[in-house]
Design brief:
- The complex is a heterodimer of chains A (389) and B (121).
- Chain A has 389 residues and is of the alpha+beta class.
- Helix content of chain A is 47%, strand content 23%.
- Chain A has ten helices and 14 strands.
- Chain A has a seven-stranded antiparallel β-sheet with strand order 2-1-7-6-5-3-4. A five-stranded mixed β-sheet of chain A has the order 9-11-12-14-13.
- About 1% of the residues of chain A have low confidence.
- The chains are: A alpha+beta (389), B alpha/beta (121).
- At the A-B interface, helix 6 and helix 7 of A face helix 1 of B.
Chain lengths: 389, 121
């Protein structure tokens, strides 16, 4: 009886052991597989525990921290670790010095979900520079306390370098185009002056047409220059108080010179004092109106104002072709162009809304839109109200 | 008496067009395509005003302006800087010149600006 019992017990135990063993093997296999994946991703990955100690790092991550390998980094003493980190100076996007504490990893350890941050690492010893995009996420335990922070470093040095080169190229090309353009414009103005008194009507018409195209060409070059200045953060803003109603009126008048058939109504509050950079706001309004005219199917366009807290919300509404929902996410991207109406092609580089959103962003303002294909679009932006209204 | 305006720009065609505009407006206009020849001429004569482009192939327009403004002999000649550079206003202020004109310019504005500087200096 006893022997039978022992046999049963043994069989049960054996079964349990083999189940546990295969579970352990599966776990080991899965861990190995996971580590192989982490080892081979192009991004640097580190995992820190709540005290800030590094509990996992892959080779790429270790190299970014100045070590030869993950093994060497994990074995390193606190002092060796500090020395490796101290080799680097850290800077933000605009190349202002930042501290280690302001990196996303620290925020994730505090239980926050930080936004991805671009950081420049400058090696103090050899002066080399690397750009990194750092993302961090907290991992919580069952008591909802932060257990780990997972930090991912993506090397974006090449992208940054290309962006810089592209910006410089655009700026150089634009200046090169501007020089002959200046001469052509001046000569055309002289020609206009000389034909003014003449009775040669066809020549006069040609002069007017050439001038119109020249001003369009100039606008294009200016947009390209603006882009490179936005990218290099050298866009100078001058904040002042002005009545945005009047500014909108001026823009409408300019648009009507270019597009005489357009119907635009200014229904904004007549005395609406705001504080912003006049020139760039006028640029934004002019561009929103140009788009409304271009895509508005010659229907009425209405500019309205609303007041919300300390902001004026200016909206430009058209009843045109609208933007298909599949394209809406890209509207503020560089070189985005509305191609929903395939029967028509619209002139432009697709820079207007990108520049508008960038220059508004620089002033702490926002731009947004609602749009429905074949119904129309409404673009709205905020601008800060002057205090004494 | 016609006023003498000297123009320094390394772009030949812009020099040519400015010369026509200024002569149309009743000025004597003389063009230079490099700073050295302008400075050489300054030793012999003195114009009523100099129109100076910022980007020159040799010495920069700002450097030329600084040099002229720091010399006893030339410091009283009014200078107008010209450029397509968006920061022209700030550059002109720094260079302590009398005025500036952004390129591309309106020809009437150019003449107006020259007359304004000539009457105030």
């Amino acid at each position: 009886m006893k022997a039978v019992h022992n046999d049963k017990l043994y069989a049960k135990l054996h079964k349990e052991i083999s189940v546990r063993k295969s579970a352990q093997e599966a776990l080991k296999h899965s861990t190995e597989r996971f580590e192989t994946i982490l080892k081979n991703v192009a991004d640097g990955i580190t995992v820190q525990d709540r005290s800030g100690k590094i509990v996992y790092v892959n080779d790429v991550g270790a190299k970014m921290c100045g070590f030869d390998s993950a093994v060497q980094m994990q074995k390193a003493s606190i002092n060796a670790f500090k020395a490796a980190i101290d080799k680097f100076e850290l800077f933000d996007q605009n190349e202002n010095k930042i501290s280690l504490e302001s990196l996303p990893g620290r925020q994730a350890l505090a239980g926050e979900y930080p936004t991805p941050t671009t950081v420049l690492y400058r090696n103090k010893i050899d002066g080399s520079r690397r750009w990194s995009l750092i993302k961090a996420r907290p991992v919580f335990d069952k008591h909802n306390k932060v257990e780990y922070a997972v930090i991912i470093f993506t090397d974006i040095t090449e992208t940054k370098e290309l962006e810089k080169q592209k910006s410089q190229f655009i700026s150089k090309i634009s200046h090169e185009i501007k020089t002959p353009l200046t001469t052509i414009e001046a000569f055309m103005q002289l020609l206009e002056r000389h034909t003014r008194a003449s009775k040669d009507i066809p020549s006069k018409k040609i002069v007017v047409k050439v001038n119109l195209q020249l001003s369009k060409l100039n606008q294009l070059v200016d947009s390209l220059l603006d882009i490179s200045r936005i990218n290099s953060k050298s866009f100078a803003l001058k904040t002042e108080t002005f009545n945005i109603y009047t500014l909108i009126d001026y823009c409408i008048r300019d648009i009507k010179l270019l597009y005489p058939k357009s119907i635009i109504k200014n229904q904004c509050k007549k005395q609406l004092l705001v504080i912003a950079d006049t020139q760039s706001i006028s640029w934004v309004v002019f561009n929103l109106l140009t788009n409304a005219v271009k895509f508005g199917r010659n229907k009425e366009i209405v500019v309205k104002s609303e007041i919300h807290n300390n902001k004026a919300i200016i909206s430009v509404k058209d009843k045109g072709i609208g933007i298909p929902s599949s394209e809406q996410a890209n509207v503020f991207e560089r070189f985005y162009r509305n191609i929903s109406d395939l029967h028509q092609t619209f002139p432009g580089l697709g820079l207007g809304l990108y520049i508008a959103s960038e220059i508004l962003k620089m002033q702490g303002e926002k731009i947004s839109f609602i749009s429905k294909e074949n119904v129309g679009s409404t673009f709205s932006f905020t601008v800060t109200l002057a205090k004494n209204i | 008496m016609k006023k003498n305006i000297w123009i320094l720009d390394d772009d030949e065609s812009i020099n040519e067009v400015i010369k026509i505009i200024l002569e149309d407006a009743g000025f004597n206009a003389k063009i230079f395509s490099d700073a050295t020849s302008l400075k050489k001429q300054l030793k012999k004569k003195s114009p009523d005003l100099i129109l100076l482009d910022i980007i020159l192939s040799g010495q920069s327009g700002v450097a030329v302006a600084n040099e002229l403004k720091s010399s006893e002999q030339t410091k009283n000649i009014p200078i107008i800087l010209m450029s397509a550079n968006p920061d022209l206003k700030a550059v002109s202020k720094q260079a302590k010149v009398e005025s500036y004109i952004s390129k591309p310019f309106d020809i009437n504005y150019l003449v107006k600006q020259i007359n304004k500087v000539l009457t105030t200096h």
